[in-house]
Amino acid sequence: MTVRARYARIREFIYLGLGIALLVVAYQFFNMAVTYMGRALVATSAMSALIGFTFIVAALQLFKLSALAWSVEELRKEEGKS
Questions:
Q1: Residue 1: inside a domain, yes or no?
Q2: Is residue 33 classed exposed, middle or buried when 0-12, 13-18 and 19+ CB atoms within 10 A define those classes?
Q3: In terms of residue numbers, what domain contains 67?
Q4: DSSP H helical segments within the chain, as ranges?
């Protein structure tokens, strides 16, 4: 098995893992935003929430990319069987 074939098999799991990691980071930023709001640091809270939303968008894009990589791999398996 070549390196490219091995990478193709684990590509969707790499994207999935990175997406989950970004969701954890987004949760931390949202938690910081709530904490800052409790201390009446409104601008810092808004910036933390904006960064959190940005990480959520990036995580969703990685989840879509993971699904795309998985479907392409399944399509190649189906074409190989035919």
A1: no
A2: buried
A3: 8-81
A4: 3-38, 42-81
